[in-house]
Request: fold
Amino acid sequence: MSLKLAVPNKGRLKERTVEILRQAGLEIEDGAERKLYATVNHGDMSVLFLRAQDIVRFVHSGAVDMGITGWDIVLETDLDVEKMLDLDYGRCRLSVAVPEATGITSAKDIPDGSKVATSFPHMAGKFFKELGKEVDIITVSGAAEVTPHLGVADLIVDLVSSGSTLKTNKLVEVGVIAESQAVLVASKKSLATKEREMRELAAAIESVLAAEGKRYLMADVPIDVLDEVRSFLPGVAGPTIMNIAGRDDIVAVHVVVDKAEIYDSVNRLKRIGASGILIVPIDRIDP
Ligand code: AMP
Reply:
């Protein structure tokens, strides 16, 4: 059964999304980003490049089966879609920020009647309502951070990642409404008929995330230091140890290691007499 996957056509999430699909083994045809529809090397799947905002709506209606978009957008559109995976990139938070000059340090101290500029009117409205505040929400389609300087708003609700945009605009964060990152979402309608294919795609993407920051290390190790190697290279299910034809004094050790541990591990392996050390990248880990 064929699957339609929607991915962002621009913005912060696009590049990493395409990279993850390629790493999962779904090679998207060249120049695909400029087309609406792209086929992938897997015959039963097509990838659509759409605006991140539209992806949730299309997934909800079942026009596409699955989508990758920001969790902030899912929360804002408030439509019932199934989150299958957190993807661990595009991290940001939806925050309340006020001009530094106000001296306000908490959202609780924002006066009633304040004007709040945001492209997240649903989330902002809900937040202030729960806080018992009467504020005017002014919906903007972007660049909320300039509105206090224009006198259009008293404060903003916007996405913050490094915080440098707020700083440049002399705004300070006084509350966090939600944390966000890229997510894989699924249409509940599609899940009813294509659940197996959809879970397979989710598992493929998850295996790419599992390989993040990992390397495959291979080394020829003297047999008498194997116990020591096992002690500092535990691996996924322990190191794989293989005989080398014609040698009874050394074995080949293959093991998955954290990238951060490579430097120390290689030095240690060399000190105890290992040779032929190779470090290779891993696209996927399907345990
Ligand atoms: P920063 O200066 O790094 O805090 O980024 C803030 C600006 O980038 C704001 O204009 C946000 O709307 C936008 N932004 C930050 N993170 C994201 C994200 N994950 N997805 C979309 N827009 C974002």
